[in-house]
C-alpha cells in the first residue's frame, strides 16, 4: 500500500503515452513529413480540379461531346468526378497522417496510392494495346452522328458546324466529303420538291454536296482565328469538276480537305508534350509520396520500439515506480 504522500507507480501504458510525443518530436524526419504533406496537398488540389472538370463536362456537354457521343461524355464526366473525389480524399488522408504522425492514415494512404499507381500503369498499357480499337470506335461514333443526326438534331448540327468552321475540316476522314451523300442532311437539303421522299440527282447544278461549314473559312488577321466568312460558297458546295463531288479531279480551293478526326488529333497533339510532362510529373509525385509515407511509417515503428524499451527501463529502475 502507498501513503498519501508517496507517488503512485506508473504503468507501462502511462509511460508510453507520456514518452511517445517527445521521442517522436526528436526522432521523426522532418523532411519526410514536409514532403509527404506537400504531396498530399497537391493530390488534394488535383482531385478538386478533376471534380471541377467533371462537373463542367456534365453541365455543358455540347460540341465535341455531342459528336463523340453523349454516353461517352457522361462516362468521362462521372469518371473525372469519382476519380477527383478519391484523389482529394487520399490527399486529405495523407496530409492528416503526416501532420499527426498517424500510422493508420499513413498506411491507408500508402495502400491507396500503390493501387492508383498500378491502375494508372495498367490503364496506360491497355490504352496503348487497344489504341486502334479506340480510334476506330471514335470514328464510327462520329460518322454515325454526322450521317444520322446532322441537319436533324439542332445541338449536334451546331456542334459539327462549329468544329468544321474553327478547325477548317470536313466530315470525319480527310477527303471524306462522300459521307454526306445519303445522310439526313442530304435528304433534307437536296429534297426533290416534285417527288416527295426522294432527292434531286447529283448531276443537277442545284445539288449541294457539303454544308457551308465545310467551306474554307478565311482567317481573321487580328485574331488569327477562322472568321466564319468562307472563300467561295458556290464553288465549295456546287463544284462539279472535282471535290467534293469527286475524290479526284480539279483542285477546289474553296472546300476543306482535312477530316475533323485528323484535325482534332492535331490539336490534341499540340498539347501532347505538355500532357506527357504532366503525366510523368504525377507519376514521380506518386513515387515520392510512397517513399515519404514509408519513411514516416518506419520512423514511427522505430519510435514505438524506443518508447517500449524506455518504458521497460523506467518500470524496472529503483525509485522509478517498480516494486
From TrEMBL:
It is a multi-pass membrane protein. InterPro entries: Tetraspanin/Peripherin (IPR018499), Tetraspanin_EC2_sf (IPR008952). The chain crosses the membrane at residues 35-59, 71-93, 105-130, 274-300. Keywords: Membrane, Transmembrane, Transmembrane helix. GO terms for cellular component: plasma membrane. The keyword Transmembrane helix applies. It comes from the Eukaryota. Pfam families: Tetraspanin (PF00335). It is found in: Membrane. Gene3D superfamilies: Tetraspanin. PANTHER family: TETRASPANIN. This is Tetraspanin.
